[in-house]
Design a protein that fits this description.
about 170 residues, mainly alpha, three-stranded parallel sheet, about 55% helix, globular
Length: about 170
């Protein structure tokens, strides 16, 4: 029996959740995707919506809202909070000044999150099922895009912009 909605998380071993969303949308364009995750909305929600998800909710909200969210995305309507809608609208405005972290790819943002939470290149490689060389390349690109000279600069930036996200379990 075919299905109409995919409920997925962003934190999965070996694969960036955003990559999965894009792949699913490429392979099954009409499939509605609802992201159900532990990650707070601030940065990940807008990225998930831009990648092709139709809805986004945190696991904290799922108890009372999950069925409604599934019904909304199954009917082709988006399910996002007012905060996410506002963030997307602000980003679409021509006068919106882009912060450096918004230039990071989804994988770079994932590596950035792990770096600022104290994970080493080797640990990140293990968690994301990548080579240490690939993670080092991501780290170099992150430093360049963020115009930072050290990991300490990245941590200060993450704290200042409230980007420290919980690590995957």
């Amino acid at each position: 029996m075919p299905f109409n909605v995919l409920v997925t998380d962003l934190s999965m071993p070996g694969r960036c959740g955003m990559e999965l969303i894009r792949q699913v949308k490429d392979e099954v364009p009409k499939l509605a995707i609802l992201v159900l995750t532990m990650h707070e909305e601030d940065e990940y929600a807008a990225r998930a919506i831009r990648a092709g998800a139709l809805g986004y909710m945190t696991k904290e909200a799922a108890g009372s809202q999950l069925v409604n969210a599934i019904r909304r995305v199954a009917s082709g309507r988006p399910y996002i909070s007012m905060e996410v809608a506002e963030q997307l609208a602000i980003e679409a405005m021509p006068t919106h000044e882009k912060l450096p972290h918004t230039a990071l790819s989804d994988r770079e943002f994932e590596v950035f999150n792990l770096l600022v939470n104290g994970k080493s290149v080797t640990e990140i490689a293990t968690v994301l099922h990548l080579s240490a060389k690939t993670v080092s390349t991501h780290k170099t690109r992150i430093l360049q895009k963020m115009q930072s000279s050290s990991l300490a600069d990245l941590v200060r930036y993450a704290v200042a912009h409230e980007l420290l996200l919980p690590l995957r379990k």
